[in-house]
Specification:
8-stranded parallel beta barrel, alpha/beta, 16 strands, 42% helix, 15 helices, homodimer
Chain lengths: 378, 378
């Protein structure tokens, strides 16, 4: 078994190009992790996800502990075997979904009790139980349990949640113990308050983690607030450990995050947008429900490296979306995940070449230019 | 362009092994045609459909004339280009779905007027317009418009519909004209009455078609009635033309149809059953919703030639079905279409070897034996 390690190979401004190594395979950073909520990246076979360029998936502890259950997944050989994905998996702690999905939540120093949103059954999640569940799932990168609150919030509330998260960070570290073939990441909290964020980072560093996540963002704040917090917090994080911006985001969030020194991202957005008829390409986002595509024989992007962007006409994709055919969700999920990987692959090459700012500018300029003009008669 | 042709290569009892040739590729018979209702075999990429062994797809004229519209498909290069399926396509006439789906139908000698079940828009389907639509779709095998009535029905009603269908057969033939690179099939009607069926077949033969379909079955009658009608009618059909049993069926219907000299089948059942959590294998039908699979690490069938039957555990498939994940529909649609093709491929080999009756007996015996016993503790 390979011990977890991270090496930073290139720096361009504040953007970073690196690599994580772990038994199940290497992870090139900046990395986008597709989300496989309940043991499947929705509407994709695992090999299709891999073919988009994904080195690692994210699994959701909250969903998996409810269905099929962590002990059951363990008895079946772990999450990798269960879903037939042999490469690395990062699992979240379950805390975020407990707060957003579960019913009758009760938060104490010990942890959080709640009822399942599916069948109302009672559950408890503590820092220790979260680590146990993630270990049962056989996760490669494990997240501490934290408390994530919405923005804006009162400073007092942000401070309380940040300090609780720090105490839970210590308990998570203790529960994790010595498992060098897995990584344990701490999570910086503190809302939009620079001093709280700084104290959170300092506290986590003194505990010591394999990586540092920035939590509590993309929870309702404008993008500029998120970018400000990132710019403020990254200097407080160790340069030799990976940095993970949780639950983010759209392509321009990702690009801005990479520019600010973030190494890892995850978001349901590309697959969810795909199921709703939206395609991400270098032209920005394209709404295939729109009638302008109805008679358009052109592919989404004939210069795309992704065959699905070249082989199907816009008219066909429009038709699949309008008729709510599963194939539409399949194709557009694939197209969006491919584009997210393309964006990261492009950023990696740019950072290596020291041209990240040109890459970001050119990418944003193409987005701003928008889609191809409609064909005549439409 | 290759002219349409059919050659019968082997006969075993009344079972037939043959081959159709047409510009877009050969079609081995007995053939099962997956149904791509609105320009997609649900939850499958076209290449995945081909990989199951399908030589030909079926497209539904009724659905496609409403959405996206036949003229639109033609302007976009035809149905093959539209859905990226380069091999042969058979289209039905639209008549069956008008009767089962459309609103405010009005049948006259001329044809049928109706309102779309989607948006209430008014449409007309005549024998001539059906041929025109199927030609616009660029179909390889075109079906005459007929009137399909349920069973049981009064003899008088069966006779009326059969005679109308015969007159429409002549009009379809006239409208089709001379298009040797396409095939036109007539449809035998007459309900469960041998004399009416015989008259229908004689009438069609005197008009002359490239192939002969048996319509008006699988419309509510027991399997033994369907098999009796097939046994009675096939001696009346030309031996040198393909025979197509429309809208049939489950695996045991197909096997019985092959034994009775049918060359082609189509049915939505395998993909629909897949979307509802049912898997067809040599063990028969398996309901993956059933709790007995919840902790079962075994694959569906470790001896299957289909990788999807070997790589995913029953527990995982159960989980996907229970959580209503799209991947469950994708995998089970693929598994069912693969099994249908496997059944046809096995029948072809058996007919070639003169062992069809052994093959049918062994296949039915394995189905009767049912699924593997549950694992211990379940």
């Amino acid at each position: 078994m390979t011990d977890f390690s991270f090496s930073l190979t290139h720096i361009d401004g504040t953007a970073r190009r690196g690599r994580m190594d772990i038994s199940r395979g290497e992870i090139n950073t900046p990395a986008f992790m597709p989300v496989g909520t309940v043991g499947t990246v929705k509407a994709m076979y695992p090999e299709q996800v891999r073919d988009t360029g994904a080195d690692i998936l994210l699994g959701n502890t909250y969903h998996l502990m409810l269905r099929p259950g962590a002990e059951r997944v363990a008895a079946l050989g772990g999450l990798h075997v269960f879903m037939d994905w042999a490469r690395p998996i990062l699992t979240d702690s379950g805390g975020f979904q407990v707060m957003s999905l579960a019913k009758l939540r009760k938060l104490t120093e010990k942890g959080v009790t709640f009822r399942s949103h599916i069948d109302g059954s009672a559950h408890e999640l503590t820092p220790e139980r979260s680590i146990e569940i993630q270990t049962l799932l056989d996760s490669d990168i494990i997240m501490q349990l934290d408390e994530c609150i919405p923005l804006p919030s009162e400073r007092k509330e942000m401070e309380r949640a940040m300090e609780l998260s720090l105490r839970w960070a210590q308990r998570s570290k203790d529960a994790f113990g010595h498992q060098p073939h897995r990584a344990l990441f701490g999570i910086v909290q503190g809302g939009d308050d620079p001093e709280l964020r700084s104290r959170s980072a300092a506290g986590l560093k003194s505990i010591g983690f394999d990586g540092y996540a920035v939590g509590g963002l993309a929870v309702g704040e404008p993008q500029e607030v998120m970018f400000r917090v990132l710019s403020e917090i990254t200097p407080d994080l160790p340069t030799d450990k990976p940095r993970y911006l949780m639950g983010v985001g759209k392509p321009d969030d990702i690009l801005g995050g990479i520019e600010r020194g973030i190494d890892m991202f995850d978001c349901v957005h590309p697959t969810r947008a795909g199921r709703h008829g939206h395609a991400y390409t270098r032209f920005g986002v394209i709404n295939l429900k729109n009638a302008r595509h109805r008679d358009d024989p052109r592919p989404l992007d004939e210069a795309s490296p992704n065959p699905n962007c070249r082989r199907f006409s816009r008219a066909y994709l429009h038709h699949l979306v309008r008729t709510e055919e599963i194939l539409g969700a399949m194709i557009l999920s694939q197209i969006n995940l491919s584009y997210y990987q393309e964006l990261c692959i492009g950023a990696r090459a740019a950072i290596e070449a020291g041209t990240m700012s040109d890459y970001a500018q050119a990418t944003r300029a193409r987005w701003a230019q928008g889609d191809l003009p409609p064909i005549e008669g439409n």
